[in-house]
Amino acid sequence: MIFTLQIFHHQVWQDAASLAVDLETRQVSLEYLDGYKVAYLFENLETACSVNYPVEIFQTYRRQGWFGFIDDILPSGSSRRYWLQKLGIAELSVWQQDLQLLQEAVIAPVGNLRIKEAVPEKFEDSLQQKRFSIQEVISLNIDFLEYAQEMGAVSGGATGAGGEAPKLLVRQSDDQQIWIDTYQDDLDNLDQHYLVKFPRGRGALRDRQILQAEYAYLQELHRLQMNAIDISKTRLEIEGEAMSLWLPRFDVCYQSGKVEHFALESVFSILEKPAGSVLNHFDVIDGVCDKLRNAQTFDSEAFVREWVKRDFLNVIFANSDNHGRNSALIKKHGHIELSPIYDFAPMRADLEQIVRTIKWGRPYEAGGEFDWQGIVDQLNELTDTERLWQEMRQLASQLLGLKQRLVEYGVDEDFLEIPVLGMNTIDARLQRWQLL
């Protein structure tokens, strides 16, 4: 079985590589197409499928099972469940499911990579012109759901956004009309791209509180001047008990009157680790820096400082969902760096009891306690540890009064009293960790 990988670059979707799958041995081969090889020879950033597989002439990449970048674009979480039901393949093996999903569901994921065979035939009919109000999307109006299903985008397909919380990828016009861009072929249309996120699970009170807190967290990240999703275009929509968080996509920009899609690659993919892997932070830092040591535009010292500060914030904000797909690097204009922070929410409060899967390891992290000074010192060969420690202390000082600010942002006070969130112990912990 052969798939064609398309990469968006120079304002067009280009046939870039073939992905050959041996159905019996499950060996997967990747080879760039001849014309593409000539145009982008030796490149390994946004014009390549992965930083691990640069464009080469006499090179066929092979591995047992999927390449990491394929795992990045396959539907996961609620998106995968939707597609398994839609295609009637829930009873198949995971491998067989993946093959079907590549054929049918990898239509328009985030980033600049897609499967050509999954993009449906385009019909110039009334469906292409349909538009919906924001309220119809918020309430998941039946007409909108039928339209989204036709466009291949109910929690999947044109959502392409993985994860447990149901999500949709939509466009919004200047007059507040919503539509789904299955084909992504009208580069002159500058309607805003949004990822619309709904509460996890069945939308119970706790699920809604977590989503509401995520919106507040983004406001606080903006106050802290962290690299996060643009808060000026972010909004929380509430209609009765229906709630959705509208996040402007950072993998899309509008330059010179044209749409541009940027490449994203998860930490799992860069490190070639399977989904669900439990990792050590020091190994992640070493691994990413090693993989990108020859990328002249990669600032490894800045990456290390940012990575440590982001995990510190994960701890303070009780975001335990820190797996390797919730951190990614963005590749654009020949540069690669950590993407803006996303999926940043108080997941320790989730009733499914989500635990951290990337840890510092003992003696640096144990039982909820951290030796941040020791962590920083351990990174002395990779970054200026004195500068990092000062930045950590400055960040810590800005966190004083966090709980009250979250209330002012609209978070329920009762929710913030949940003990596992630790909102009442922030000052004490910062002092204990010698950050104040």
From TrEMBL:
Domain of life from the UniProt record: Bacteria
Keyword Kinase applies: yes
Alphabetical keyword list: Kinase, Transferase
UniProt entry tagged with the keyword Kinase: yes
Pfam families referenced in this protein's UniProt entry, alphabetically: HipA_C
Record InterPro entries: HipA-like_C, HipA_Ser/Thr_kinase, UCP028135_HipA-like
Start and end residues of each HipA-like C-terminal domain: 160-392
PANTHER family in UniProt: SERINE/THREONINE-PROTEIN KINASE TOXIN HIPA, TOXIN YJJJ
Entry similarity comment: Belongs to the HipA Ser/Thr kinase family.
Protein name: HipA domain-containing protein
